[in-house]
Amino acid sequence: MTALAVPAVFAGFGPAEMARRRSALEAVMEREGLAHVVLYGANRSGSAVSWLTGWPVTREAHVLVTPGERDVLLVSFFNHVPEARRRAAEADVRFAGDAPATTLVELLVERGAGGAPVGLIGSLPYDQYAVLAEGRRVLDLNRAHTRLRLRKSEEEIAALRTAAALTDAAAAALLEPPVVGRTEHELVARVEHAYVSRGGMHHIHYLGITPMSAPDRSVPAQWPSDRPVAAGDLLTFELSAAVAPEYSGQLLRTVCLAAEPTPQVRELHDVAEAALSAVADRLRPGVHAQELVDAAEVIEEAGFTTVDDLVHGFGGGYLPPVLGSRSRAIRPTPDFTLEAGMTVVVQPNVATPDGRLGVQTGELLLVTESGPERLHTFPRGLVRAA
Length: 386
Fold this sequence. Notes:
It is a single chain. The chain is α+β, with helices and mostly antiparallel strands. The protein is 32% helix and 23% strand. It has two domains: 15-149, Creatine Amidinohydrolase, Chain A, domain 1; 154-385, Alpha-Beta Complex (Creatine Amidinohydrolase), CATH 3.90.230.10. It has eleven helices and 18 strands. Strands 7, 8, 9, 10, 12, 13, 14, 16, 17 and 18 form a ten-stranded mixed β-sheet that branches. It has a six-stranded mixed β-sheet with strand order 4-3-2-1-5-6, with helices on both faces. A two-stranded antiparallel sheet has the order 11-15. Helix 3 (81-87) links the parallel strand 3 (72-75) and strand 4. The longest helix is centred in the middle third of the chain and has 21 residues, at 154-174.
């Protein structure tokens, strides 16, 4: 497969975008009557720290936000402070020390917070929370932060387009022949090289490989094995290359390796494509989450089920709405309505009821007033590779 064109290396979000985010957070603080908010992030995942400061977070980081004051970014490793100062140039970057919550409390005292309530965004470890909450009320602002991430700005959409292009390039590299005879580790190395060499960042790259003649896997695995790929195998993948922490594409496909699909694989994939089209066609402002679940009824009508999500919000985190098909209703369908500017992944993972065989198809889509817009250019449909 020919490698797909990729735009220039992502240069980061500009001052106007970062100012927009700060203003949005300050509006939440004003509404809640808060003069101070603490942000917490760990291990590069789900972090308001990177959203507000640009620092991707390595081990752990904290930010103290006070309107009218410079943000203080506390970094957990002393040797990471210089790079954090380069990436988060607008913040006052300091070493957090061995007791970061105590450092935060000292900063709050310096800023005259006393026993005033403090907002919190992030999953602060309990021992740190206990220090922060001693003598003051701590308000959970995580849902408010999530709401700020749902509708994307033009600059965020541009970043997601670049991430989608990197993800497409990774998929093309994965499928360059020969695939048969390579181990899953070797295929993952291809994937990573395709986007890292172009300035991309890691998010996920999950592969699922099983013989079509005797399948034993319905979804991709989170960790690769050293099993060599064989002719007649079925490969499913879920790839996400990023340009900034959690600003990534997401592409899911099913690949028949050096063989035609079996009748069961063909049927599963036909149903998955029908479900993908039916759900994607309903991605418009004002559509309720239940309508998306209902649109995928073709899966259960065909006698199949799903293991993975049917739909989930994406781009700047793993976001609402998180939906399963009717037979995978592990949680109630949320009372959630789509808005223009949201980005979601539609990914019907249609599987046999016994869970021994499944297919993947889908990708990241933008909700617009006129319907869904593709951010990826990788071809849809069942893929063949050798």
